[in-house]
Amino acid sequence: MNQIMQCLWAIVMAMCATQMAHAAPSINVAVAANFAAPLQKLLPEFEAASGINVRVSVGSSGALFAQIQHGAPYDLFLSADSKRPQALVASGRIAASAVQTYAVGHLALLGNIDGLSDPRLTAAGTRVAIAEPDIAPYGRAAKQLLEQAGLWEKLAPGLIRGTNIQQTLQFWQTGNVDVAFIAASQCVTYQLTCQTLPDNYAPIIQQLAVTGKGESSIAAKKLAAFLRSPKIQSQLAEAGYAPLASGPAEGRH
């Protein structure tokens, strides 16, 4: 009987080992707030096709970059700019080949005003929100745009600043501001009526960085290739991003 039990136990252990060997790989992805909703919409297709499970953490590009620099176990970083991925290269954290552009973003204006020339934008009592320029790329772009329009010095003292572009939108959704400078992709995601803005700011070139090692790196590269594929780029164009072909695909700024 003992021999039979030992054989059965050996069989069970072998089956468990086989299942573990074929368990679906998983990766941790850090994504900038502007791309969180589009990514979540795309992931079911990727996971079904690849068998890779994706765990997502959302935040500002600056905050996620700091976490990676301090050893956070992310396998793929989807930044809202090129600055942070390139900084990872400069610091020796990753190789230059681990960085690629996956999207080019646009700013949009949300609120009951008629563009930057509308006097209501600078009127007393008008509450305006942008993402914090020091940590959020879309906030930096909004600052550049307002500087070009000669409005920054007047608006800056009273601006309500979100830690990321998602919080900036939430300020408007909750009625805490009258006007918000947000990502054009958010207008599509949340079906909002937004106004287009002139591109008087440095291109919002969104780059990814493969930060994982070993098998995690391989899985992360598959997701990176998926996001850059013509099919997905076509979908991202409909989601408020410029197709890679229309912008500097591997540019830096």
Layout of helices and strands, plus pairs?
Blueprint: H1 2-21, E1 26-32, H2 33-50, E2 53-59, H3 61-69, E3 76-78, H4 83-90, E4 99-105, E5 107-111, E6 128-131, H5 137-148, H6 152-155, E7 160-162, H7 165-173, E8 179-183, H8 184-189, E9 195-196, E10 204-210, H9 214-228, H10 230-238
Parallel strand pairs: 1-2, 1-3, 6-7, 6-8
Antiparallel strand pairs: 3-10, 4-10, 5-8, 5-9
Quick structural summary:
The chain is an alpha/beta fold and 253 residues long. It contains ten helices and ten strands.
Report on this structure.
- By secondary structure, this protein is an alpha/beta fold.
- It folds into two domains: 22-105 and 204-246, Periplasmic binding protein-like II (D-Maltodextrin-Binding Protein, domain 2), CATH 3.40.190.10; 107-196, Periplasmic binding protein-like II (D-Maltodextrin-Binding Protein, domain 2), CATH 3.40.190.10.
- The protein is built from ten helices and ten strands.
- The chain has helices at residues 2-21, 33-50, 61-69, 83-90, 137-148, 152-155, 165-173, 184-189, 214-228, 230-238; strands at 26-32, 53-59, 76-78, 99-105, 107-111, 128-131, 160-162, 179-183, 195-196, 204-210.
- The strands form two sheets. Strands 2-1-3-10-4 form a five-stranded mixed β-sheet, with helices on both faces. A five-stranded mixed β-sheet has the order 7-6-8-5-9.
- Mean pLDDT is 89; it is low at 5-14, 16-22 and 247-253.
- Belongs to the bacterial solute-binding protein ModA family.
- This is Molybdate ABC transporter substrate-binding protein.
- It holds the Pfam family SBP_bac_11.
Number of strands: 10
What are the secondary-structure elements, in order, as H or E? HEHEHEHEEEHHEHEHEEHH
**What is the first-to-last residue Cα distance?**
72 Å
How many domains make up the 3D coordinates? 2
**Order of strands side by side in the largest beta sheet?**
2-1-3-10-4
- Percent of residues in helical segments? 40-55%
User: In this structure, how is the largest beta sheet organized?
Assistant: 5 strands, mixed
The overall pLDDT average reads 89
The percent range for strand residues is: 15-25%
Gyration radius over CA: 22 Å
CATH topology label of the largest domain: D-Maltodextrin-Binding Protein, domain 2
Q: Unreliable segments (pLDDT under 50, ≥5 consecutive)? A: 5-14, 16-22, 247-253
- Principal-axis shape equals globular
- Determine the CATH superfamily of the largest domain: Periplasmic binding protein-like II
Name the CATH class of the largest domain: Alpha Beta
